[in-house]
């Protein structure tokens, strides 16, 4: 099932400078595996060595933060939009 993924500028070097891509996956976990298969090296920027999502990278499915859904097991449907948003800190 095709899901639209919005890629932040710092990660677009992995996607050949594409800001939006289509990828497959029934959950965020499956989507991450699909991203890695199509764009090698991107998953290491999104997940730590244990495969957990990095603390300072936020994922949204149709504008809903996955931390308030089912995390990495959040279900995806055909046509969903997943936004990857790096957290910004500063003062």
Q: Any idea what the CATH architecture is? A: Roll
Low-pLDDT segments, ≥5 res: none
Task: Tell me, briefly, the overall form.
Answer: globular
Q: Can you summarize the main beta sheet?
A: 5 strands, mixed
Number of helices: 2
CATH superfamily: Beta-grasp domain
Strand percentage: 25-35%
- Percentage of residues in helical conformation: 10-25%
Q: Which fold name corresponds to the CATH topology?
A: Ubiquitin-like (UB roll)
Distance between the termini: 41 Å
One letter per element, helices H and strands E, the order comes to EEHHEEE
Helix/strand/pairing category? alpha+beta
Number of strands: 5
CATH class wording: Alpha Beta
Number of structurally distinct domains: 1
Averaged pLDDT, please?
94
- Alpha carbon gyration radius: 12 Å
Oligomer: single chain
Strand order of the largest sheet: 2-1-5-3-4
A few lines on this structure:
This protein has 91 residues and is an alpha+beta fold. It contains two helices and five strands; from the N terminus they run ββααβββ.
Layout of SSEs?
Layout: E1 2-6, E2 20-24, H1 28-38, H2 42-46, E3 57-61, E4 64-65, E5 81-86
Parallel strand pairs: 1-5
Antiparallel strand pairs: 1-2, 3-4, 3-5
3D structure, described in words:
The protein has helices at residues 28-38, 42-46, and strands at residues 2-6, 20-24, 57-61, 64-65, 81-86. The protein has one domain: Roll (Ubiquitin-like (UB roll)), CATH 3.10.20. With 91 residues, it is an alpha+beta fold.
């Amino acid at each position: 099932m095709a899901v639209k993924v919005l890629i932040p500028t710092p990660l677009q070097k992995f996607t050949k400078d594409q800001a939006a891509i289509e990828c497959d996956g029934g959950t965020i976990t499956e989507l991450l595996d699909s991203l890695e298969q199509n764009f090698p090296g991107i998953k290491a920027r999104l997940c730590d060595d244990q495969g957990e999502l990095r603390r300072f990278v936020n994922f949204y499915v149709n504008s809903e933060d996955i931390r308030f859904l089912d995390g990495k097991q959040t279900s995806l449907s055909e046509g969903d939009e997943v936004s990857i948003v790096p957290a910004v800190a500063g003062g």
